[in-house]
Amino acid sequence: MTRGQALLIGLAVLALGGGGYGLFRAGGYGGFTPGIAASALLMVVVIGWTASYLLRVVSGKMTYMEQRRTYRRAYDAFTDEELMRRFESLPAEEQARLLEEMGQGGGEPTP
Question: First CA to last CA across the chain, in angstroms?
């Protein structure tokens, strides 16, 4: 979320509170009652939004985390392909030596 989006959400919440006050006042509530009712409604909205945010944090469905997972998968695929390309370009003896060093030697180099 960008700063601009955060500001727009803040303004929307502010407008929601003012709109709620106007609606309650137009609905016939007088005195302090429209302000209290609008504040209560706004609190319910903010608590609901906060609960949804916390649920996304706990479940790992945050935008940054999703982007990081996508980047990591692409990076891992690229590096695996690059390592395989470099390994396959080595002579058969060098491949066998590396496999033995890694403890995965089967005696036969990879074609």
Answer: 49
